[in-house]
Design a protein that fits this description.
Among the domains are: 134 residues, no CATH class; 96 residues, no CATH class. It is α+β, with helices and mostly antiparallel strands. The strands form six sheets. Strands 2-7-6-4-5-3 form a six-stranded mixed beta sheet. It is 38% helix and 27% strand. It has 13 helices and 23 strands.
């Protein structure tokens, strides 16, 4: 099963992330070409290079002064040969070959990239007094993790065709084009998703509980109330309500609800509530940082503490302790377990071991199942706090039914555009939550994942017990969200990324045209790139450890 998920993860990772990165680079490429910037390579994947296709046509004149550094002399220059040509400018801007030699590798490429007088490319044809070269390489590389565009003079303005020689506005447009493409992609993906017929489970979303001193309680909401709409959005499952709440963090939200009336004599299998025919509107303000109440025996501060008995009205998994120490002589049963009792669970357990209460045991030496822990002492739990959510409600979906839906184009387009905009807001709120240290359950789970984590996620989707259309919709939705994330990440003023390069153009503008030297700018981007690689490596280690533990991202 693990191997199936791994294989599926690799394939789906390439299918989801690959096109997003290639389209990002294509944005740079098209805008660069629009402004006359010389692009010398468009790479699919990252080096080492395994092949490529040469395109373009550059004419170079040869004369009696041109030297041919081949054993056969001029006769050694044939179509298909990769060469480096040292040039000079002639009349009317024509290029005149001074020296033609076999291409010697990276050193020549780097000089050309930074605006030198070298041209390297593949010979298309030779003729009397001229050479025709293909200078643009569409390369295919071994590491299929993205792509890149190499332009002449990204920091050095020596060449008229270099990026650095262009006006500030054009340079910013070239650098921002990739992020702009990633920003646009979701507005195409999400309307297309809504055109597909999808099986979905819908029902009535009711409040099974309302936490004390929460925005929901202050708004007059009670257990059993049915949520019909939030800010005009129809609520048909838990995810609908969660997204609607997360979109309005810190802002007032309008809820349309049907108030519940307890039914003193419910029929067997029927709801415990009856509902008024008309709905009511209430105002609720979701919190960025909902409180976490510590579970204690005696409450001394109601704002930060809650008793175990009351906490279990809202969350049955809470407890006074989440671990047991294995002892020979048990002094406190709520925190200790005898070796005899512990070894009934696993013979591997020894005195001094600490057993963590978990839903399912994966390490018998250091874990105890929740059900076994409760048998030992009812005060044990999975956590020792009651974490409130943004509005302070516990919700469930009742009267669930399976439906198949799709939207016609005239409805799918506006609804899809709204969904794409929602993803922007959700992404922004997720970043804000990390910055302020929010404990909102909506942002629980891994805060960051790297390429390996994305591969795990796509692999789990691909191997899930779901239909083909459901998997396509999930992967397409993930692609849309990732595209927004790529747009935001790349436009941030981080050295080595597009936003970092734009920052140097802004600095140049602030300094009234005085540039930072190409050497210093290149060094800053190099340091930024190394730090970025270190961060990716750190996140990847966390991803690998999560996979080794067998933890899922769902």
């Amino acid at each position: 099963m693990m191997s199936d998920t791994f294989f599926a993860g690799v394939i789906t990772f390439l299918l989801v992330l690959g096109p997003l990165v290639i389209l990002h680079e294509l944005g740079h490429f098209l805008v660069a070409r629009k402004f006359g910037v010389k692009v010398i390579e468009f790479g699919f994947g990252f080096p080492p290079r395994v092949g490529g296709l040469w395109t373009g046509r550059t004419e170079v004149q040869v004369n009696e002064s041109t030297q041919f550094d081949f054993p056969e002399g001029r006769a050694g220059l044939k179509a298909g040969k990769i060469v480096t040509v040292m040039t000079a400018s002639g009349e009317g801007g024509a290029l005149i070959a001074l020296l033609v030699r076999a291409h010697s590798g990276k050193a020549d490429e780097q000089e050309r990239i930074h605006g030198g007088q070298l041209i390297f490319g593949k010979v298309r044809e030779t003729g009397e007094g001229r050479i025709s070269l293909s200078e643009m390489l569409w390369s295919f590389n071994l590491l299929p993790l993205g792509g890149f565009v190499r332009m002449i003079g990204e920091e050095d303005p020596k060449s008229d065709e270099s990026l650095a020689s262009k006006p500030k506005g054009q340079r910013i447009a070239v650098m921002a084009a990739g992020a702009a493409v990633n920003f646009i992609i979701p507005f195409i993906i999400f309307p297309m998703i809504l055109l597909l017929p999808q099986d979905m489970r819908v029902g009535d979303v009711i409040l099974s509980n309302v936490l004390p001193a929460s925005p929901a309680e202050r708004a007059g909401l009670k257990p059993g109330d049915k949520v019909l709409k939030v800010d005009g959005r129809k609520i048909e499952d838990i995810a609908d309500l969660q997204n609607a709440v997360t979109l309005k963090l810190g802002s007032e939200s309008t809820w349309e609800v049907q108030k519940a009336l307890p039914d003193p004599f419910p029929q067997p299998g029927a709801s415990n509530y009856q509902y008024r025919a008309s709905s009511e509107t209430v105002k609720v303000t979701p919190r960025w940082k909902p409180p976490r109440l510590a579970i204690v025996t005696n409450v001394t501060d109601p704002d930060t503490q809650i008793s175990l008995a009351r906490a279990r009205l809202y969350d049955l998994a809470t407890g006074l302790s989440t671990s047991l120490r294995v002892s020979e002589n048990v002094a406190d049963s709520a925190y200790e377990i005898s070796l005899e009792d512990a070894q009934r669970l696993s013979s591997l357990i020894q005195i001094g071991d600490v057993l963590k209460v978990v839903p399912e045991v994966k390490d018998p030496r250091h874990e105890i199942a929740f059900t076994d822990a409760r048998k030992h002492d009812s005060a044990l739990g999975l956590h020792t706090y009651l974490q409130q959510g943004a509005v302070g409600v516990i919700i469930e979906t009742v009267n669930v039914k399976q439906v198949r839906r799709s939207l016609p184009p005239w409805k799918a387009v506006p609804a899809g555009l709204q969904s794409a905009y929602d993803v922007i807001v959700l992404t922004k709120n997720g970043i804000m939550a990390m910055v302020i240290g929010s404990r909102n359950p909506q942002f629980s789970g891994p805060s960051t994942v790297g390429p390996i984590g994305i591969g795990q996620l796509t692999g789990e989707v691909a191997t899930a017990d779901a239909g083909i259309i459901a998997k396509v919709v999930t992967l397409a939705s993930l692609a849309g969200a990732l595209s927004f994330s790529l747009a935001i990440l790349n436009i941030l003023p981080i050295p080595a990324l597009d936003g970092g390069r734009i920052l140097f153009v802004v600095i140049e503008w602030v300094r009234k045209g005085k540039r930072v030297s190409p050497q210093r700018e290149g060094l800053v981007h190099l340091i930024g790139f190394v730090i970025l690689l270190m961060f990716i490596a750190l996140v990847s280690v966390k991803d690998i450890l999560r996979i080794v533990r067998g933890d899922s991202l769902f």
